[in-house]
Amino acid sequence: MDDAIALSAMAFIEEALEPLYVAHRAQLPSDPVYGWEGEPSGSAESFCTRCGSTAALEIHSRKTPRIDPMAHRRSIPYIFAFLSALCALTHTQATSSITSDAPTNLSLALWSPQPDINEAAIEGFFASSGHTNNWAVLVCTSRFWFNYRHIANTLSIYHTVKRLGIPDSNIILMLSDDVACNPRNHFPATIYNNAGRFIDLYGRNVEVDYRGYEVTVENFIRLLTGRHDPDVPRSKRLLTDDRSNVLVYMTGHGGDEFLKFQDAEEIGSHDIADAFAQMYEKNRYHEIFFMIDTCQAASMYKRIYSPNILAAASAEVGQNSYSHHVDPDIGVAVIDRFTYYNLETLEKLKGEDKSTLQQLFSTYNTQAIASTPGIRTDLYPRRPENALVTDFFGGVQNVQLTTAGYKLKSGNLQSQTLTKQHHPSKSGSAKRKSMVPPSRNNALQVHSERGAVSLPFVLGLMGFMAGVWFLSRVI
Amino acid sequence: MSSEDYERTRTRVLASILVVFLLATPIWWRTTEVYRAPLPVEDIRAWKEDKTFHRTLTLNVDVAFYDHTGDGSIPTAGKLLELSEKLEADLNELYGTAERGRAVRHQGDVEESVPGELFADVKLWFRISGGLGSKYWERGQRPKDVAAKGDSWSASSLNGHYKVHVACTPPEAGKQTNIYVSSKRAVFVELPGECVDDVRVSNTLLSVIGGLFADEQTNYLKMTEQKGEAANTDWESMRTMKYASKYQVTFSLLNADPSEVLVSWDIQEAVNAYILPFFSQLSELSEFAVDSQVQNYAALPIQSQSIEKDGRTVHVLRPEALPHFINSAEWNLASVVSSAPPLNFVLYIPPQSQSPLHVVTSKNDVLDTNAFLIPRWGGVVISNAKEIGVRHFSVDDLHPIMEVYVAQLRDLLGVKHIRIRNVETLLPKAQVTYETAPDAGITLWELDQLVRRRTVQNIVDAVTTLNSLATLITNLESMVVLDDIQNQVLYALDALHQARLALEANDFSLASQHARDAFVSSEAAFFDPTMVSMLYFPDEHKYAVYMPLFVPISVPLLIAVIREIKGWKNRKKRIKQKEE
């Protein structure tokens, strides 16, 4: 009885104070001044151990941009004191009768968090961004020799992310054309992004995952959504998880809300938005940095609606995006302006660099780029000021030092018997496979098996024949 | 031909064309329609609705008391019954408060944007039975020895059934409560001189049993709030691989310079001896495919620092440098054989120019294991070759390395050390020993927890996936849905139902199988390659396709029809006029 009353009283008060908590939540966790022992995340504070009432004190910082947290902060201890007093009051009677009651005393002790045994040993975890792996999807959508610069753009970014530590297995490189081997290339088997020809981008170690006519809208969507035929190799798949930061870089010819693929088809901004949404639904990314260098590029990120996506584009809607300079020997433009000025910053970075994306954005010079770069941050609560460039362009992994192994028996003798033990599990798995209905992976066979179509078809055919017969009779 | 005949012919021609059009319309309609197998969207949504999956996982705990006092001061059978009833009530109350504290927290605004976040809420529920045990645990026997006997009485063979053996020993100076958590499903508790005091016995047992499952309970509560700010610092979840029904485990021996050291290893025997027992324990959850490789000329991708130590030059890798250890594009570690999630384990032999190479902590202490773990990727051990020549790793040589790998595997697969949570505060004087499982690498306590956790996780994931699929299909009307997808979805729903039934019957192994099936087929349905249609197909595009076809035909046709109607009206008028 007492508990029920107390709980409802608590609930009422908590509700009344909810707006205040909203204001404080971002500030409060693990504040040593007030001496609360919270969970590591600092999210729930139990002020009444009798009934387990807690005050929710952590709210997304983004909800409280206008309230000055410091002003309200001071009042929080009083509120807590008040709530605790109320708790004590409502429980006085009950407490006196069951002081010896074990669960009461134990509850707090038990549920107060205790760090993992390993936690103390965890060392070397650095990134607070929450990702454990990096992926890059770099797409050049244009064909033909005169689009040399698009291939050079993509390869330049490829070069950068690889230098900053994303392994080839985590880079999906899509190049629609192979200008390095184009007969018009004055420097065969090379691609340069500068008239000075400093770096051969084609180099020795370029792994192109999708090449030539494989670069299609369908393949790109399949790549993002993870819906492949089973025989598609691992190197062509985006095997990301909920801890992956993904860099998606696209370049080519585009217009308002579309980007041309291969001169034959185009991807719409809705397609990209839907693909990202599906990735989000299946936890296929932690954060995405979407970068696009094309005309009216800002229109391409307009439709995106999934959270944790940051986007940068070379030009606002209605603006063209221009190439930077021509190499007279090669005879075509070798790089686009937006990519060029990004690279100016990126090429100076080292793997451990702490520059933020905001710093990268602030280097954009509208005069030099000749278009206004668009940046979209409303879906990105972590803010570009807090995101490192290397969170997306670098392959920074977290590391945990292993301090001790797990004691095992020295096992020369067992090996024989244990191999045998392992076999039953194999047969078990075989049995399980047969239970799951086999998935059909061949091409779309939508109508082939259905009789329903044939009836209207036959009817229509008869009608048509009748019409012809009728006409012939008449004429 | 008279004008009358001419008109009639024209009407017939026109009518026949119109008839053809009318008859062709249904054919066109049917043939351009996308095939969409009906999905049980209602059923799928029902799983996500609030409180659909509020389960209590019932754990049966047998408490057996042994009289080691010799003077019969053990509680009577009636008292024991009372004691266990009280224990059960207290435990369940204790676990009830854990949930309540959390529920309030969920009223926060963060959850607002994610409706139905709490659709799965799992609570542990205890069923305690108490009684006297006498003959198995003899007086004077140490718990370790009793546990080692491994008889069926001492530990249960079923997931979810546990035994607590309580020995009442005579009070002895300096002797404290001794708790021994065996590697099987049993705990041994020695209570010197405490059995007289009911409350103390009850308190101790409450702390022991409650503490053993507290971590698990907290975990279930965490599961429902996967996304959020706090997740960014949740190392546990960052480290643990996502569940898959199959993993590809690759052991790689990387040798920096074969001109100095030639290496070989008995990896197959070592895996059989040390790793497979661990995998066979986990076979209930996932399959593991193991392969191995040896690569030469694997240059060290990062520069080590050299420091002087004990008069020798030692090369050290500081933790800041370690993240770049694996980045070398030259090491082709990714397996192309399967698309199962890979787990990589690397044994690295550094070049002589940089050995001995040691991993140091941030305080510059050399790490004995010389190993580190990369979350969701695998583990690395560095082994220094002592001299130039041939280096062969025999099964015994690999023993310490395999121990490290097993420790890393446990972390990567989410195995948690069994422990009595907050035992220092709950039972400050007690001495607690946890038995490890040196033959399998995982104790049954840990395995049970893992199975239960993965079961719940798989059910939650399957439900989420099915709901995503339902949303996707409802939103994208031009997407083809084959019968296959329908089958997979129906199968997943059925498996979910079976899993729920199994959980109700407390059959955790069966539930885990069904949960895995549900997870696998819901994933298969979602990631089916046929599920990619042109996602966005605007109406303008459709007009663009049909316009060139139909406008040239339909304009003259329409004009002809209008003319015909006009002519028909005129004729009618004329007839009327004639009649008049």
UniProtKB/TrEMBL annotation, chain A:
Give the stretches traversing the membrane.
451-471
An individual GO BP term: GPI anchor biosynthetic process
The residues responsible for catalysis, as annotated, are 253, 295 (nucleophile)
Q: Name one GO cellular component term.
A: GPI-anchor transamidase complex
| Keyword Zinc-finger found | no
Q: List the Gene3D superfamilies.
A: 3.40.50.1460
Q: Which GO terms describe its molecular function?
A: GPI-anchor transamidase activity
Question: Bias regions of kind Basic residues — which residues?
Answer: 420-434
Keywords from the named record: GPI-anchor biosynthesis, Membrane, Signal, Transmembrane, Transmembrane helix
Q: In which pathway does it act?
A: Glycolipid biosynthesis; glycosylphosphatidylinositol-anchor biosynthesis
Name the record gives this protein: GPI-anchor transamidase
UniProt-annotated stretches for the region Disordered: 412-441
The entry sums up its family as follows: Belongs to the peptidase C13 family.
The answer on whether this UniProt entry bears the keyword Transmembrane reads: yes
From TrEMBL, chain B:
* Membrane topology classification: Multi-pass membrane protein
Q: Which UniProt keywords apply?
A: Endoplasmic reticulum, Glycoprotein, GPI-anchor biosynthesis, Membrane, Transmembrane, Transmembrane helix
Classification via InterPro entries: PtdIno-glycan_biosynth_class_S
Q: Which residues cross the membrane?
A: 12-29, 543-562
Organism field: Spizellomyces punctatus (strain DAOM BR117)
Its UniProt pathway annotation is:
Glycolipid biosynthesis; glycosylphosphatidylinositol-anchor biosynthesis
A single Gene Ontology biological process assigned to it is:
attachment of GPI anchor to protein
Protein's recorded name:
GPI transamidase component PIG-S
Membership in a protein family: Belongs to the PIGS family.
> Where found?
Endoplasmic reticulum membrane
Query: Source organism's superkingdom?
Result: Eukaryota
